[in-house]
Amino acid sequence: MRFLHFVFSRVLVFIGKSLNLSFLSYSWLANPQKALWALVIVSVWQYSGYMMIIHIAGLVNIPKELIEAAIIDGAGAGQRIRRIILPLMVPSFVVTLFLTLQRGFMVYDVNLALTDGGPFRSTELISMHVYKKAFLAQEYGIGQAQAFFLFLIVAAITLAQVYFSKKWEVEM
Known about the structure:
Blueprint: H1 2-18, H2 32-60, H3 64-72, H4 77-106, H5 109-114, H6 126-136, H7 140-168
Main location: membrane
Keywords: Cell membrane, Membrane, Transmembrane, Transmembrane helix, Transport
Domain ABC transmembrane type-1: 1-161
């Protein structure tokens, strides 16, 4: 993670100053408005491969016979995408959406390595807040209550994922 800190604090600043780009001419990790976006960029990059594999698996599972039948029936490329491919990809979209939401609530490692919740606690997400309350401030009751609340949120997201996956599942 030190490499990412180097990228956001040194490399992008150098590029921004060299190309006279004001939004890159300062460290994003030191700016309260940009620090959270730096964490978002890192998380998207970190999980893009995993999500891509889920989408590729969804594409591979589309029966070739359906595509061939649509071509024979005269469906254009846009119609095939809109009426066959996208509806059959909905389970993949639902899984990646809810996995991303769950990861967003539970991210701790990237947050700790890049900003430690700073600057001015602008990137202190709920999992980091729970850890700091329970173990650093030694307020175990508050930390446990917050951890239970985090559990309820993640459980609700998981139940919503199961519900929507079953609801939007397309029979083949």
